[in-house]
Structures are given as C-alpha cells and as structure tokens.
Amino acid sequence: MKFFSLSFTTLLFVGISTIVNSQERLVNLENLSTEFGYEIRYATPNNFIGETLYNCATCLLQPEVAKALLKANQYFCELGYRIKVYDCYRPLDVQKKMWSKVPRPSYVGNPYGKGSIHNKGAAVDITLETLEGCYVEMGSDYDYFGREAHIDNYNFSKEILANRKLLFEGMRKFGFNTIRTEWWHFSFRGSGKFKTLNVPLPCDE
Prior knowledge:
Elements: H1 8-14, H2 16-22, E1 27-28, H3 29-32, E2 37-38, E3 60-61, H4 63-78, E4 81-87, H5 92-101, E5 123-130, H6 158-173, E6 176-179, E7 182-188
C-alpha cells in the first residue's frame, strides 16, 4: 500500500469526493500550501518519549481534512496568525510504541482499542504563531500531560485565554472538534468513516 501526495491542482481536477471515497490516500499538506508553519516533534527526540519516532517530518491528511485545514489557516492568516503543525497522520505502529511507554488513555489513544484519530489521518496537533513565525503563548508546551494542557482550565492570564479562544473557535468553524485534555489536538468531524492506517510515512519519495 502506498501514499499518494497530490498537488492542489490535481485535487481540483480529480475531485475531492472521489479521493475521500478511497479512504487510503493521504495528501501532503506542504504540497497544498506554503502558508503553514511546521515543527513535527515526532521526527525529533524533542517529544514526550524522548525518541525519534518518524523517519521524516511530514504532514499527511485525508484530503477532506486537508481542505478544511486550508480554510482554517486562511481564516487565521486574515487575523494576523497562521497554523503551526506539530503532528498529522501517525502510523498505528508508532501509536503502539507511544502506548507501550505511556499507557494513559487521557493523553495517548489505546492502539488496541479505538486508537487515535491521528491513525486515520483525520486529526492534527497544532498551535498558532504570528505570520512572522513568532510564538503565541497557549499556557503549556505541546504534549504536556497535566492540568495546564486541559481546555477547561481557565487559571491563566487574559492573553492566554484569548489565544486559546481564538484557536478553538477558529478550528470549530471549519469542522474540527477539541478534546478536554489537550489544547493542541483537533479531530475532524465524521472521522469514524476513515480507516485506521498503518502505512509508513513516505520518507524516500
């Protein structure tokens, strides 16, 4: 099984609905837009496990999800921000390795149960940064497992609460749902229709 990285022009000609029905073709976000920031943490040892889990730094998504994320980013860009991506599609084998290290379902999806929406290419871990690439404070680091990361924690400055509100409300406008324990995680609506995948990242293409 192989990934297909399609340009935005190709998406327009082939048709989003046709590609979505295949459920196994993921698109590379970098092929669709140059207006995102990236810090794919799992392609580095700078993550909660402390090990490099991906062989390359890439963001693959279901075409329908990528299309919605493009719209969300355009919305943020008009407000002076852009989306910075931490994680997108995650192979199931990587999910199993995460679970073996941190078997905490509040923060790591159980790969032997429902797994993670990341394994379907239908979830993103993101934050906001300015159009110049400057940091926007959200109250905790990415993948921080504690109360500071919870979206129902309001014990922050007005600035941080405003930043979180901007992120949450903006993503919800375009079909993304939050989860309580991770301010950075957004699952696309209707993600149950997508298959769980275990195809390696196409690092040699």
